[in-house]
C-alpha cells in the first residue's frame, strides 16, 4: 500500500514537472524506468526519499544528459558513492557540473579524466593501473573518496577541501564556483 501511494505521488510529481503546454500522462517507459531505478537505489533510507530525489535531480540533469535511463543510472551511482564517502550527493553533482559538465570522457589540460576529473597517477598509487577513469562508477568512487579525505583533512572546511581537490589551495575561485553551482542549481534542503 505504501509503495503504491509513493508511486502515485511520483507520477503526480512527473506530471507537475512536465511542460504545462503538453499536459500529458507520464511516459509508461519512463515510469517503468523510475520504478526499476528506485528499486535499485540501495543508498536511500526510504523509497519515498529515493523517488523524490531521483525525480528532482533527473529533472535538473536533463539539460546535460538527455537520456532518462543514463541520467537515473548516474544519479543512483552518485547517491551511492557520495553516501559511502559521507558526502552530500547534491554537492558531488555541483562538483561534477564544475569539473566536466557531466562529460564522462572529459580530459583536462593537466590530464585529469572523467566526470570528477581524476588524475591518472591515482591508479598507480593504488596499484590499480587498469582502472578506467571514464567509467562513471570508478570515477565517482575515486572522486568521492578524495573529496571526503580532503574534507576531513581540512576539518570540514568545504572551501579549502574543494581547493585541495582542484590543486588550487590558497585560491578561492574554484571553490566559489563549485559552491555557487551547489547553492544555485543542485542544493537540496536536508
From TrEMBL:
**Which intervals hold domain Transglycosylase SLT?**
79-172
Q: Which Gene3D superfamilies match?
A: 1.10.530.10
Q: Which controlled-vocabulary keywords does the entry list?
A: Signal
Q: Which residues form the signal peptide?
A: 1-20
Instruction: Decide whether keyword Signal is in the record.
Output: yes
Report which superkingdom the organism of origin falls in: Bacteria
Family from the record:
Belongs to the transglycosylase Slt family.
User: What's this protein's name?
Assistant: Transglycosylase
Q: Which organism is it from?
A: Pseudomonas taeanensis MS-3
Amino acid at each position: 500500500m505504501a509503495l503504491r501511494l509513493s508511486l502515485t505521488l511520483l507520477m503526480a510529481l512527473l506530471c507537475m514537472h512536465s511542460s504545462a503546454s503538453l499536459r500529458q500522462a507520464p511516459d509508461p517507459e519512463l515510469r517503468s524506468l523510475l520504478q526499476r531505478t528506485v528499486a535499485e537505489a540501495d543508498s536511500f533510507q526510504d523509497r519515498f526519499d529515493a523517488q523524490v530525489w531521483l525525480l528532482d535531480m533527473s529533472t535538473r540533469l536533463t539539460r546535460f544528459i538527455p537520456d532518462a535511463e543514463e541520467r537515473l543510472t548516474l544519479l543512483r551511482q552518485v547517491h551511492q558513492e557520495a553516501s559511502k564517502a559521507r558526502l552530500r550527493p547534491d554537492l558531488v553533482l555541483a562538483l561534477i557540473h564544475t569539473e566536466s559538465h557531466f562529460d564522462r570522457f572529459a580530459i583536462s589540460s593537466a590530464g585529469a579524466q572523467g566526470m570528477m576529473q581524476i588524475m591518472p597517477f591515482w591508479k598507480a598509487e593504488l596499484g590499480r593501473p587498469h582502472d578506467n577513469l571514464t567509467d562513471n562508477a570508478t570515477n565517482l568512487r575515486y572522486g568521492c573518496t578524495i573529496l571526503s579525505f580532503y574534507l576531513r583533512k581540512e576539518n570540514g572546511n568545504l572551501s579549502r577541501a574543494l581547493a585541495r581537490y582542484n590543486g588550487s589551495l590558497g585560491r578561492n575561485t574554484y571553490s566559489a564556483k563549485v559552491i555557487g553551482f551547489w547553492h544555485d542549481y543542485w542544493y537540496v534542503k536536508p
